[in-house]
Amino acid sequence: MTPLAMAAEAGQSFIMEELLLANADPEVMDSLGQNVLHHAVTSGKASCVTLLLRHGTNVNTRTHENCTALHLAAAAGHEEIASLLISAGTTVDSRDSRGLTPLHLAAMEGHIKVIVTLILFHGAPINTLGFSYMFPRPTPLDLAIAENQAESRHVLLQLGGKTGAEVALTAACIIQKCYRARRKRGKAFHWYIMLAKLKGLRAPPPQSSYSPMPVPGAHSPRSPAAPLVPVSPKRGWMSQGNEDKTKKKPDHLMPPGLLQPPLPIQMPRASSTSQLQDLLSNLSEGEGGKGDCKNEGGGDVPENYNPWPYYSFTGKLRPWPVTPGRVVSDHIPRPDYADHPQGHSLSEQSLRGNTVIKVLTDEEQEGLRVACKLGREVLDEAAQVVDLGVTTDEIDRIVHEATIDRECYPSPLNYYNFPKSCCTSVNEVICHGIPDSRPLRDGDIMNVDVTVYHRGFHGDLNETFLIGNVSDTAKRLVKTTWECLQNAIAMVRPGVRYREVGNVIQKHAQSEGFSVVRSYCGHGIHRLFHTAPNVPHYAKNKAIGVMKPGHVFTIEPMISEGLSR
């Protein structure tokens, strides 16, 4: 076991961060086929998992038993970690060597929260069949019954779960109907067409405006449910089929600007969505009132809306409903991740682990200056509408339209499936907040982070705004952060080590009684949204590189009233 894996299993995120900065490889496997992410999931520490996701660890790596990290999280009952992994792109219905999905394992162990999270929020198939050598092949409900998990059985039944025998009977009836149709038509019926018509074998995602939890530092909270990539029927007859492409897909499965997921095999009955919400509400009430959500500054979150009922919030701010992402015209040039189903930047991934800092030519520097100038204009337009009662979703609309008007692409849109065109971070949200329907309230502080992509270059900038009557402490926090930035900019010159930037920032922040958030850092930027160098904002870091003419990077100090993590 490597030192990084040992730190992950012990839940020591600080040690992990130091090792990763020293270029430790998180993909190294042990004798069981487990990489560092598997060990981090075993520790149950979401911070360790978040750190690895931020460094681009492959979430779909499998052990010798064909288990993904999501299998381990579901079996151990870590619903927050499960959500993080799904948000980062892991397959929600992946199978291990026994044919079991994460939902099977959660049902066997009686982890109610994981079951609800997988089905209600991430569209996990509820009636997937397991072992291939048993008949009837077991569904999650079968395993819950076999393991005497009464609560799991109750929840699965409420969510539409069936036994393997019921699923097999349904399939047999449809096969018979298809056989009769083939005889009547007098021509061969392709096997995969019949499979696409099987009904009742996959629970569709609920029709709700669910907004997923952001993956800190990954620049990529995922869309309401992970886009489902069409698969070949060879994966098994329980795999998602290919529906008739002429059918209109339901609105909740069509986030504009993203790759359209295929249509679920069966739409829910009219009452099924309300039943799911009622069940979730009842479960939340049983957790000591964690489902009650009130926003700082007064005002309730819309009734029955809480996408993360078991998440332990650090403050009073709560998520509000998120509208679909906005569309960018095809004629506008876009980065490589804009049309990727998971929003992955292949150009960035090809350089992962490369610490060589690109030196821009004079022509490239001029192209970047133009992108930054346009980004500043967009941010200025957003600043004009920031006021009490304005929603961050409205600010996102202004940013999106201003970006399009300048023939630019909003860089955050679909970057690792980020659903909006800018980031709006209110109060205790340190960065990468998703614009939603919450109105700005008296006393809020809000950061608007804008990046535009113009003719091959990203221009990234942000600004923090004070809403109404802000406390003296909040004013001092914002002022101190601005001073930290100015002090850091003042030391930028050829020959300065990137690791020295954090010394200046932390010294000033601590002198004012604040701490530096260590989980995020500045980064290189040019034709790539995020690249070398890393620019940590805290002291005694191990950043690699020395500033040279032609280097381009961001300095983004994030200062907190509370702890550094």
From TrEMBL:
Its cofactor is Co(2+); Zn(2+); Mn(2+); Fe(2+). InterPro entries: Ankyrin_rpt (IPR002110), Ankyrin_rpt-contain_sf (IPR036770), Creatinase/aminopeptidase-like (IPR036005), Pept_M24 (IPR000994), Pept_M24_MAP (IPR001714), Pept_M24A_MAP1 (IPR002467). It catalyses: Release of N-terminal amino acids, preferentially methionine, from peptides and arylamides. GO terms for molecular function: initiator methionyl aminopeptidase activity; metal ion binding; metalloaminopeptidase activity. GO terms for biological process: proteolysis. Residues 366-560 form the Peptidase M24 domain. ANK repeats lie at residues 1-31, 32-64, 65-97, 98-131. Its EC number is 3.4.11.18. It comes from the Eukaryota. GO terms for cellular component: cytosol. Gene3D superfamilies: Ankyrin repeat-containing domain, Creatinase/methionine aminopeptidase superfamily. Keywords: Aminopeptidase, ANK repeat, Hydrolase, Metal-binding, Protease. Pfam families: Ank, Ank_2, Peptidase_M24. Binds 2 divalent metal cations per subunit. Has a high-affinity and a low affinity metal-binding site. The true nature of the physiological cofactor is under debate. The enzyme is active with cobalt, zinc, manganese or divalent iron ions. Residues 203-257 are annotated as: Disordered. Cotranslationally removes the N-terminal methionine from nascent proteins. The N-terminal methionine is often cleaved when the second residue in the primary sequence is small and uncharged (Met-Ala-, Cys, Gly, Pro, Ser, Thr, or Val). Belongs to the peptidase M24A family. This is Methionine aminopeptidase. It comes from Darwinula stevensoni. The lineage of its organism: Eukaryota, Metazoa, Ecdysozoa, Arthropoda, Crustacea.
